[in-house]
């Protein structure tokens, strides 16, 4: 039995659904070892395993270990999660365009990831819909049509308001159809999901430190780096001296208010999650999801917290234009990624522990 | 047990191989050899037959052999009845059309 052959069948088995993975891996490894006895070429076994893994119908309950209805819902949730995450990245790359050259490259990378997520989301929605009902197929088609309109509007620069109107109409119709599909779907049994409550305290501590660091860096950016980036050749003391007292006080007070409010939110998060963690009432995933959501909110409101000071500088000091620092672009990107993470963790289904290791029902062992 | 949605010549070959060994379990690769068809054709058929309840499978219980266990296949009682009917129907259809003849198993190809 060649090492390459073992790698081939192990790879084929690794792509199979969990409930049947170990069974076929062992079966194919035994076939590979016994191929000379049966007069079969080992390469034929490897090729057979690969073909099998590519053609296996993966929605059958005997293969997945869960009822078809559960599989459909899981796929639909992955589809929605991918599309929502892609939406955040699309909006982000659209608004962040024009930053420093390195960040333009990052923005392109972000758009590439958004494209991949969009395609994955559409694929998952269609896979779910094709296993569900005709109305589910209509829903997937409407979502695809809506995305198609937006792509045509943005990428092809066909700035026709009809396209945006069509995108809106299609997505509203998809939402209505989706509601009907989900509300009329038969109930499915609940499977236990993986829910780790270990190391919650450590996770809460790490998340709180990260949120505090995000606030400190955001404040430094608003008070130091952003004003310097907005003006040409002025020192920081010259910038603040150049502003009127009311503008200076109002601008700085907005930033201080932002820092105080979100420090309080981070502290509340730390206390609440620590208490819940001690009672095993919260999972590590929930802690991370909330922390990522908080981080995304901190970054989103950082822009508004610095708006007053930035406008005052743009109105008062040369070259009389707004803008953000290079760090500001990076900061906004981090905020987007945090929101993407929060969306994926909150919408995407948790890993189920029930079906693992279930053999096909027709097997006797 | 569920009826098969389609019965191809390869399916008939697999069913005939299993019918030849009715009452005993057969190693999957032995079925491949007897059918003289590639594993890539036989593996999916065995999976489909098993999922539809025509076939049962179990691990070989042979202490003399070390390493990964072989998977053995056997027609269920209902599966054997359905397999005979399917093979007969396929042969009759082939004879009527004259377009296809399944090579008898065990004969030299």
Automatic annotation (TrEMBL), chain A:
Keywords: Membrane, Transmembrane, Transmembrane helix
Membrane spanning stretches: 78-96, 102-122, 134-156, 162-182, 203-225, 255-275, 287-307, 327-348
Statement: the UniProt record of this protein carries the keyword Membrane: yes
Keyword Membrane on entry: yes
Descriptive protein name: Uncharacterized protein
Species of provenance: Leifsonella bigeumensis
Automatic annotation (TrEMBL), chain B:
UniProt-listed Gene3D superfamilies: Winged helix-like DNA-binding domain superfamily/Winged helix DNA-binding domain
SUPFAM superfamilies named among the record's database cross-references: Winged helix' DNA-binding domain (SSF46785)
Residues of the Transcription regulator PadR N-terminal domain: 39-83
InterPro entries with a match to the protein in the record: Metal_resp_DNA-bind_regulator, Tscrpt_reg_PadR_N, WH-like_DNA-bd_sf, WH_DNA-bd_sf
Name this protein carries in UniProt: Transcription regulator PadR N-terminal domain-containing protein
